[in-house]
Write a structure and sequence with these properties.
The complex is a heterodimer. Chain A is 61% helix and 8% strand. In chain A, α7 crosses α8 and α24 crosses α25. The termini of chain A are far apart. Chain B is α+β, with helices and mostly antiparallel strands. Chain B has 3 helices and 6 strands. Chain B has a 6-stranded antiparallel β-sheet with strand order 1-6-2-3-4-5. The longest helix of chain B is centred in the middle third of the chain and has 9 residues. The chains are: A alpha/beta, B alpha+beta. Chains A and B meet through α3, α10, α11, α15 and β12 of A and α2 and β5 of B. β12 of chain A pairs antiparallel with β5 of chain B.
Chain lengths: 694, 82
């Protein structure tokens, strides 16, 4: 059995999904579209197992954005593998009218429905009381009161679903069909032997947006629609449905006059205030970056030193061999480079998820709309841009909510300039190397400000790039901004924790696989060279430095071996290209290694510098600080570090992002342009910074 | 303007804190979106917030629905001042 979960945005749909399926969820794709499909299993009261599919939040079956199109695509195609046997409509009790619009539309497709009445507590605080059993009687389908956050009413819901699957009760209201539309719909229904008049007309109205229709059928449907005003039909449908719903609600809802100003409105007076609004937003961001730096420091130090001592212990206990070296210097050094950033990534995603959950993100969209509209973006671009601080991949997918194609495309093109979590490791290490840690304004530190500065550079250049692109691109597609402002609410901590868990796991798993693979390849390439070149280099060092003490000699040997290895050769090849940016061949190796995934950079330098490092330099930071050029100057000077930082702010070093851009734009043209412009920007700015500072 | 004499104005001209009744929409594509969100002709809307730079505006109706829309979008909605 397949059960669809559908409802308005902010109706508590995801909470209910989590309550019903627990952690047994998987993310896949709807066929024909790129929208993520979350599905999971749950048991009904009679022990039969159902598959629950979570659909994107929508107000209506008539789609306005890519996200909403999925609902139409699946619900009007009984052949679809996701076509539900039953739909649970999550209705917001404090906003019942609007929830019932979607309910009526879905019911008229002949899909059995159960209404899950959620957010009764919010309704109560707004002085709305309602009679759910009477509502159920009037609608003709089960209506179950639930509290998805508190896990109340879930068993009742399961019972109603089981009952509804056994004896299907339906609700039909086709009174909105005019004589003209009825004749047309019946005509289409008969000609294509469809079972339902509403399905027939929906397919015909939106034929362009439905991928399951053949080109021939689309053509035929279009001919049928000649001269039919479908915009007017849709408007009339909505008005007619609302009239019907109002009649029903008159009998079940008692709405007392609301108090003059709710808490949410008072909060808006401050958070959308002309000065306070922006100040508070800046403070929130600053707090976020500071927390990422300060609070995450303790667990990170702990992880760093644990790995260092683990490597040391293994080196002591295990017999000295190439295999031991691979395990310690290759594998463990690489894994350490991933694990150490878990605390920061967790903090970052916690913040983003709290911003979204609380309803503040929608206010940020309102605050920013006019400011960034001039750059060719929409206020709605703020959500992808802010999520881009976490990871560009979900952020680029979030751009689907932007209706206008031009604005959406520009948002996709510039989102990777927002510094993602994978850049954080690089920033953290290099900032710690060159920016002294001094307190500013009590809680804040210079390092926190430096970090925020890097994020700001990314943001400013995202704006500038979108401005340039908006000048170059022509578009006739209009964009609609209209957006709902959800009532403020306490974040659901369970769901915040779940987001953190999900993202951290994805980071460790996805990035971890690449990092470990590259660490091993890198170790092999750094430990072996063509023919006997390594042995020759070693012999030469021994011959030149006969009177050096043994440990110093060993270091020199290791360094010479690295220089003559395959990795060293690669680094040397690209050194002329990167020398103007202030990088040596060792950094060159890390640049090449992190080409496909920038998070590899830190792991790589930690692997490279652990080869031939002083015995005392256990942590990555210490190794970098003590790294010297042949003439004794430190490698990581302010100029080189700053140049590297700027390089990583701009460089498009993430294959997964390019793949997602391809998926979202359905063309290699855009990811290619993106790669070229970002790389050029990175190279030129890094060069500028290094020349200015050195 | 005759329209203004009988009390018809555009929503974009309604001031902060004022209420008005929605009469008609002059933009078909946009109107469908507004209708679906429950902003129907006859509904009383209040200008709830105006973003710091004068746009977007936030409107409140049916007691608890809050929508943000751009000034240019509010311009396509005809209302009667209350």
């Amino acid at each position: 059995m397949k059960i669809a979960l559908i409802g308005n945005p902010n109706s508590g749909k995801s909470s209910l999904f989590n309550q019903l399926t627990g952690l047994r969820q998987k993310v896949g794709n709807f066929p024909g579209v790129t929208v993520d499909k979350k599905s999971g299993q749950f048991k009904l009261s009679d022990n039969s197992v159902c598959t629950l599919i979570d659909f994107p939040g929508t107000y209506s079956i008539h789609p306005k954005s890519e996200d909403e199109r999925v609902v139409l695509e699946v619900f009007t195609n009984p052949e679809s593998i996701d076509y539900p046997d039953l739909a649970i409509i999550v209705a917001d009790a404090s906003n019942l009218k609007r929830s019932l619009l979607l309910f009526e539309q879905v019911s008229d497709l002949n899909i059995p429905t159960v209404v899950a009445l959620n957010q009764l507590d919010t309704a109560q605080s707004k002085h709305i009381t309602l009679n759910s059993s009477k509502l159920s009687r009037l609608l003709g389908v089960p209506v179950v009161e639930i509290n998805a956050r508190e896990r109340i009413g879930i068993d009742g819901l399961k019972l109603a679903v089981a009952e509804q699957l056994r004896h299907k009760k339906t609700h039909q209201n086709l009174s909105f069909f005019s004589e003209e539309s009825e004749v047309l719909a019946d005509n289409i229904r008969k000609e294509f032997s469809m079972s339902n008049r509403y399905v027939a007309l929906l397919q015909a109205i939106h034929s362009d947006k439905l991928t399951f229709l053949s080109l021939e059928k689309k053509q035929q449907l279009k001919e049928k629609m000649n001269g039919f005003n479908s915009q007017k039909f849709q408007s009339d449908e909505v008005i007619s449905r609302y009239t019907d719903i109002s009649e029903t609600l008159k009998e079940v809802v008692i709405e007392e006059v609301a108090p003059p100003q709710t808490f949410s409105q008072k909060l808006d007076d401050i958070l959308l205030h002309r000065t306070w609004g922006y100040l508070i937003f800046t403070a929130v961001l600053l707090l976020m970056f500071q927390a990422v730096f300060t609070l995450a420091e303790y667990p990170m130090d702990f992880i760093d030193s644990s790995f260092a001592s683990m490597i040391e212990l293994l080196k002591e206990r295990l017999p000295e061999s190439q295999l031991t070296n691979l395990l310690t210097d290759g594998l463990l050094a690489g894994i350490g480079g991933v694990v150490i950033f878990i605390p920061q990534i967790a903090f970052l995603f916690a913040f983003i998820s709290i911003l979204e959950e609380s309803g503040y993100m929608a206010r940020v969209v309102v605050l920013m709309d006019k400011l960034i509209r001039g750059f060719g973006l929409s206020g709605r671009s703020v959500v992808p841009l802010i999520s881009g601080i976490g990871c560009a991949i979900p952020a680029i997918m979030a751009a689907r909510t932007i209706g206008g194609w031009k604005e959406r495309l520009i948002t996709i093109m510039v989102t990777p300039l927002m510094s993602c979590a994978a850049r954080l490791p690089i920033y953290t290490i290099l900032i710690a190397l060159v920016v002294p840690n001094k307190p500013v304004l009590g809680f804040f530190t210079t390092q926190g400000f430096a970090l925020m500065g890097l994020y700001l550079i990314g943001f400013v250049f995202a704006l500038l790039s979108s401005w340039v692109m908006s000048l170059l691109m022509k578009s006739s597609h209009r964009s609609i901004f209209v957006m709902e402002l959800p009532t403020y609410q306490m974040p659901r901590w369970r769901s915040v924790l779940f987001t953190i868990y999900e993202k951290v796991l994805a980071f460790v798993w996805e990035a971890g696989k690449i990092i470990i693979a590259i660490s091993i390849v890198l170790w092999v390439m750094a430990s072996y060279g063509p023919g006997d070149s390594l042995q020759k280099a070693e012999d030469q060092i021994i011959a030149e430095n006969v009177d050096l003490p043994e440990d110093k000699l060993e270091n020199k040997i290791a360094a010479a071996r690295l220089q003559n290895s395959y990795a060293g050769m690669f680094g040397k090849v690209i050194e002329p290209a990167i020398a103007p940016l202030g990088y040596d061949w060792k950094i060159g190796i890390a640049l090449i290694a992190s080409f496909a995934a920038r998070e590899v950079f830190v792991g790589t330098i930690s692997t490279i510098y652990s080869i031939g490092a002083e015995a005392g330099d256990k942590t990555i930071k210490a190794r970098l600080r003590n790294e010297r050029k042949p003439n004794g100057e430190p490698v990581f000077t302010v100029a080189t570090s700053m140049s590297l930082l700027v390089f990583y702010v701009f460089a498009m070093m993430c294959m997964s992002t390019l793949a997602v851009v391809y998926r979202e734009t359905k063309s290699w043209k855009w990811p290619l342009i993106q790669f070229v412009y970002m790389t050029a920007l990175a190279y030129v700015s890094a060069w500028g910074v290094f020349q200015a500072l050195s | 303007m005759i329209a203004e004499k009988i009390g018809l104005v555009r929503l974009s001209n309604v001031k902060w804190g004022q209420s008005a009744r929605v009469e008609s929409f002059n933009d078909e594509e946009l109107s469908l979106k507004l209708l679906e969100m429950g902003c129907l002709p006859g509904v009383i809307v209040t200008i709830d917030q105006i973003a710091p730079l004068g746009c977007p505006v936030c409107i409140r109706f049916n007691n608890n629905n809050q929508l943000a829309l751009r000034k240019s979008e509010a311009d396509t909605i005809t209302v009667t001042l209350l």
